[in-house]
């Protein structure tokens, strides 16, 4: 995506649903795009698939500009993207096999070849014995698997998931997320884009992530990089501090510390306590294993008799990122 912009008009009022969105995702990766309701996610899906033409900017896949295509060329270009909806959107009157084979049917693939391809796809998503069933006979998770198989029918370069697990229970969600990873491993040239508001989805499967807000990409990068920033919005969303008791100034000074990799497993709080000659308490924290790396985000209480800046200096010397919690709160408010 390069400078992707979409402008709507409500009467005389201009609404910029997308405002210069640029993003490049390499083959073989799973990229999450997260944002709250109204961030522009739905508009982005429509523009990426050319269901709605962007006002300006381009969408390119392997060097081919989809936004320049028209008519028959556009229909061909759209096949480069397989779209999986929040609801599977299956044809109730068709069997599972016929649902999966529908994209092949409308592109003129001969019946024998179509049947072989459908059987292969159903095996791939774990539904090899379900071809003769109808959507009403399947669970929500199974219907979503059918939707994934259908999206793969035209061998797309990009597999785009639009809130793929928001209607599923936690166990089924994890099963679908595991399947997405398996698909990426099965086809190393595939790009997987996941549009979601669920942090669990990003934590479990994404290699990289972008934060969309107000139609703009505010933060973007490899998961291990965006998380490893105390002042980052994505870091707060993915590795935030859980609610804890309020601490007044008489009890000391709050300090946030973020450690990654091997340092996340080291007793940095105990080491810093010894260095400054005072006992630093852990008020709250979270530990996550993301994209193969362990991250630890702790909120510490430095007692009144100790110098919090000395504690911060020692924590940084130990390789952690440490800052006064009040500074982070002020940055977030700004």
Automatic annotation (TrEMBL):
Pfam families on file: ABC_tran, NIL
Keyword Zinc: no
SMART domains: AAA, NIL
Domain ABC transporter, residue spans: 2-239
GO molecular function, one term: ATP binding
UniProt keyword annotations, A-Z: Amino-acid transport, ATP-binding, Cell membrane, Membrane, Nucleotide-binding, Translocase, Transport
Record Gene3D superfamilies: 3.30.70.260, P-loop containing nucleotide triphosphate hydrolases
Protein name: ATP-binding cassette domain-containing protein
Organism: Tessaracoccus lacteus
